[in-house]
Amino acid sequence: MTQAADTNLFTALRAGFPAELDATAIETIDEPPLFYTWRDIERATAMFANLLASLDLPAGARIAVQVDKSVESLLFYLAVLRAGFVYLPLNPAYKSDEIAYFIGNAGPSVFVCAPKDFARLSALAFSAGTTFVFSLGDDHGGSLLERATHFSDHHVAARRGRDELAAIVYTSGTTGRSKGAMLTHGNLLSNALTLKSFWGWRRPEDGGDVLIHALPIFHVHGLFVASHGALLAGAKMLWLARFNAAKVAALLPRASVFMGVPTLYVRLLGEASLTKQACRSMRLFISGSAPLLLETFDAFRERTGHTILERYGMSETVMLTSNPYDAKDGERRGGTVGLPLPGVELRVRDEPGRLVPQGEIGSIEVRGPNVFAGYWGMPEKTKEEFVEGGWFKTGDVGRIDADGYVVIVGRSKDLIISGGYNVYPAEIESVLNEMPGVAESAVVGVPHADFGEAVVAVVVARPGAALDGAALLAALKTRIANFKVPKAIFVVSELPRNAMGKVQKNLLRDAHRALFA
Q1: Spatial distance between the Cα atoms of 387 and 409, rounded to a whole number of angstroms
Q2: Given pLDDT bands bounded at 50, 70 and 90, which one contains residue 175?
Q3: How far apart are CA 504 and CA 506, in angstroms?
């Protein structure tokens, strides 16, 4: 029998390291700054991997990690891949009840937490059947590092097939319990290689990219898209433990690539130091994880001379579409998430399962080598989310324009059916966001005895602006059909968001659920 080709993601990332292993790979933007070389990454991941190998873990063991962002936490992720186990990143903001659910659901053999949480979470993990618990701090301390220093810095990476699990990423869980998306080595590697080519990552011998890494690494965007891209290209990372607009603006002259969520771009625009001169060495600004307002898109281009590249992906699929990087492939269009990436198929269908005509709204379905293997421990849910031919139902609603660009209208669960009419929140939000004094908005449906659901809007005013809900309603009535006009508009100081900047509409629905009771 022929042995399957080795597609261990770590091995592929390691092959992207530059020939000069003593060059700086990661520079922390702290006081004092620390410099990690490519050789440091090689040695540290080997020591971590040898520690894991010494634990005699079962094949396919899950390694759950809930720690603050640090270079060491990234190196441990790479070590888990190197050792052939399954990495399970968890948001540091999760509370004990949430952690108990994840541990109970995934059954990890190893759990790593922050030192300050060790007493509380180790008891929880051990009681749930986890065998080993370590600590890892963002101050270069913790039992994980202490134990790893006793192991060899040489390690032969485990062979892994493309269909073997590399990571389980839990969905954000804005409705119901989170689901663990199973991502294989093949899923992650195929997407990383596609983005390396499509976004024009430059290797050191070709001028070399420098990435400002200011995203969290418990999520697809920061852990897979940003980190994998830099590692595959042998590109240096300027590492921030957390986003700071002033620090990022100051780093721009030293960098060439920045990835952020829309909120980060809004904050950057608030920095006077964000100028065309400051961005002179930048070649690419990428936005994702939440919709980018057209106003932000235009304001950033005007201020910096750079057009943000917006893309679309999910925990279950990594990246699916992207606006073009190279002008020969087309323009970057605000309000769209671009075209399907090479190797990705995307279609839009209606509820009976028929393809909708071009330009019409429907449910987005995708397939390709990047699409996940299913939900951990949920075979029935997995079966529900795939249709004949291997197409995955994303749960997103959108349309494809005449040039093939994809426009996301919203989530299917956010669809409001009011008086028998379908109302798409994003359509109303786009009109509201264009109104004077409105910074941003969110539209939800709440129970209504007559209409089934009533449309409710929540808006945030621009600094110094005074908004009047009645005036906004009057203006909307001149712009959209009556059945789309909200029954009520509330003005708030800010919208509730999760760690990735996505508006938590479930919280807004809950807050106004009894409005028409």
Answers
A1: 22
A2: very low
A3: 5
